[in-house]
Amino acid sequence: MRTVLVTGANSGIGFEASRKFYLLGYKVILAVRNVEEGNKAKFLISLNNNEERLVVRKCDLCDIESMKNFVLSLENDRVLFDVVICNAGIMNHPFEVCKNGVEIHFQTNYLGHQYLLDKLLDKGIIKETRIIVVTSGFYKNINKMFDINDITGNIAPIKQPNIYYSISKLANCLQVLSFKEKLDLKAPKSVIVAVRPGFVRGTNLGRHTHFLLRFFATPLIYLIAKNLDQGTRTIIHCATCLEKSIESGCIYADNLKEEYTSIVSKENAVKLNEITQKLMVEQNKD
């Protein structure tokens, strides 16, 4: 039986992708911050039918111990992943740093996922795996490579939340470039790509956006945004298409490969690795 890991599986794109993988016959590991919400998602996906193919696991991407325990549980169960969907994310969250001093968008959207991918690769849980990193066209809002002071508590002045979100989405694109090189060495039959779902309604991503803005924007959103089925099609395509139809290290939208902007470069991927190594000191303590 094929097995897929989906982070942020209890709502929005993560929920819909999990539902589709379940219908395709996959065993789905629903990695969630809130187990109660994860169990609700499990029930809605299965409707109490064949629940053994749906497994809820706690994984808080802002909590190092939670991530360590999650990886340990996978190792103990001897899980091997055919597909990993790095989907969990936040947007427009008020400025906050996590316990490790990292800005919350960067920690949730990028650094937590990077920790998981590194551990899954080191533990041999990733071997012949399709890895899909959910990014956003917001990465194009960043025209200069960020440094460590931009994504830690040393920031002055504090930026607008959408800038932090955009930085984290750029990090996701650079993550795909750099992790491809790790896969080439340690798991050469694996593939990693970024997916840009587009503007999708029905997600929980904008939960931190001011309620008045959400209220007035709702009619426009329903006119121009994709629904969840449309928003998850490229994820499913990249996870299930023939090997010759997908190229590791690239970004996909609407089932097609597209070009990165110039800021997504090998040079900036190296810079991100340097930042990441400094930030990972606490995460890598066992």
From TrEMBL:
SUPFAM superfamilies: NAD(P)-binding Rossmann-fold domains. GO terms for molecular function: oxidoreductase activity. Keywords: Oxidoreductase. InterPro entries: NAD(P)-bd_dom_sf (IPR036291), SDR_fam (IPR002347). The keyword Cell membrane does not apply. It comes from the Eukaryota. It holds the Pfam family adh_short. Transmembrane segments: none annotated. Belongs to the short-chain dehydrogenases/reductases (SDR) family. This is Dehydrogenase/reductase SDR family member 13 (inferred by orthology to a human protein).
